[in-house]
Amino acid sequence: MEIGSVIRHFREERGYTLEEVARKTDISPSYLSEIERGRKRPSLKTLDKICTVLNIPQESLLPEETKVRLGDKIRMLRLEKGLSLKDLSNKTGVSFTYLSEIERNVLHPAADTIGKIAAALEVPLSLLLSHTENWIGHKLKSVRESLGLTQTALAAQAGLSPSLIGQIEAGKVQPSLKTVEKIAQALGISPCYLLVTQNQLEEMLVSMGPDLRALLLNENVQAVLKQICHLNEKQLRFLLKFIEVFKQAELE
């Protein structure tokens, strides 16, 4: 979906009229309408105002990566080996229906299930859980272009050189955490969005028990996690220290 379409989706989902959002963001209804229809590209400042009113992170408006997910990998490897879903089911002892949902990325399988699938496909487990090289570079370029920024413009806002932005996007250099934070701040997104890959999230999810997965679906828990993603390094270290002290107090 284009940024304008996503803005309209969240606006309508929250029950706001075009005029209400325009008034709250101090922009004209006609300009907001042009943004929603994809005829105008909002500035970062305008985008930040809209996201604040709609109470959503800016990364919610950014395009999803065209990335091979766990289910896609399993399906491609299965077909490459000439196996049907039934064949893979027989080899793994996992039901046909469950495998189908995994391949369609509807379900995140448990770690032992992924191990069985990897063994049946005769591939290392790391192949199913590995992530794409230059992930940061690909995501950075995608976000920058979706916001209509040149490398030079982004570099100026982040206080970096255009050549460094170009090298990061090309995968020639790996940025430091401090550099990632500067870029994320300039783009109005959280550093987590640039640093965490889809497969890393999948790997964490498959290692979780059903109770923990259910807890993560809680709206209040998700709200807290979103806030954590926007913390800087100093704030995050303070939070981790607080959690450690809290855990020690519970043991006493």
Structural notes for this entry:
It is a single chain. The chain has helices at 3-13, 18-25, 29-36, 44-54, 70-80, 85-92, 96-103, 111-121, 125-129, 135-146, 151-158, 162-170, 177-187, 191-195, 198-206, 210-216, 219-229, 233-251. With 252 residues, it is mainly alpha-helical. The longest helix is centred in the C-terminal third of the chain and has 19 residues, at 233-251. The model has no long low-confidence stretch (mean pLDDT 79).
Walk me through the topology.
Layout: H1 3-13, H2 18-25, H3 29-36, H4 44-54, H5 70-80, H6 85-92, H7 96-103, H8 111-121, H9 125-129, H10 135-146, H11 151-158, H12 162-170, H13 177-187, H14 191-195, H15 198-206, H16 210-216, H17 219-229, H18 233-251
Helix pairs in contact: 2-3, 10-12, 11-12, 11-13
Which strand-content bin applies to the residues?
A: under 5%
Helix fraction by DSSP (H/I, runs of at least 4): 55-70%
**Assembly state of the chains shown:** single chain
Number of distinct helices: 18
Overall 3D form: globular
**What structural category do the secondary elements indicate?**
mainly alpha
Query: Could you describe the largest sheet, including whether it forms a barrel?
Result: none
The rounded distance between the terminal residues' Cα atoms is 52 Å
Order of helices and strands: HHHHHHHHHHHHHHHHHH
Instruction: Please tell me how large the radius of gyration is.
Output: 22 Å
